[in-house]
Amino acid sequence: MKQVNLGIELARDFGDIIFAVNVGNEILVDWSVHRFADVSSVLPFVDKVRSAIAQPVTVSDDYNFWNKPESHLLAGHVDFICLHAYAFWNNQTIKNALNWTQSIYKQISIEHPKHQIAFCESGWPTNRIYNDGSYEGGLIGIANKDNQKVFYKNYSEWVNNAAILSFYFSSFDEKWKGGY
């Protein structure tokens, strides 16, 4: 609760630059190491923040949570859906990356037609682990700067033309995802 209270305080103190508040990041998708087992256990946190600040409130999670029936309970408590969808980490090639990303957006839009959907995480890595027997090592996508450039060019054109809210999540690869 300490972090929730601090988030409320910061949203109030810096309302001129904080335009939305995220109450959780990847806390409901089944592969999360810090998963809340029950969606309803997140609702008191979301409701507390929503009642205390003027900004819109969301919970950021993977498409593989937002496409589940239990996501509707949470959707009823957030102002917009903060969607994570990485073609690379879902075993796509750069050639299919945009089509896959567009299909995920369409799927979640159909699942939650009354909500604005924002891409809060998407992208393409520049480095990865290869052929080490892990999930990452077996992915078919090629991680490099050229493919990242292709992804962001295609992705940016699409979200801009379609007026889809999108955030750039990170400017560098994360070590725990194989980046160096």
List the defining traits of the structure above.
single chain; 180 residues; alpha/beta; four-stranded parallel beta sheet; globular
What topology does this entry show?
Blueprint: H1 2-13, E1 21-25, H2 43-52, E2 57-62, H3 63-66, H4 71-75, E3 81-84, H5 94-111, E4 117-121, H6 145-162
Parallel strand pairs: 1-2, 2-3, 3-4
Distance between the termini: 34 Å
- Parts with pLDDT < 50 across at least 5 consecutive residues: none
Which overall shape is indicated by the principal axes computed on the Cα atoms?
globular
Helix count from the secondary structure assignment: 6
Rg measurement, Å: 17 Å
Structural class: alpha/beta
Can you tell me about this structure?
The chain is α/β, with parallel strands linked by helices. It is built from six helices and four strands. The protein has helices spanning 2-13, 43-52, 63-66, 71-75, 94-111, 145-162; strands at 21-25, 57-62, 81-84, 117-121. The protein has a four-stranded parallel β-sheet. Helix 1 packs parallel to helix 2 (43-52). It is globular, with a radius of gyration of 17 Å. The termini are far apart. The mean pLDDT is 92.
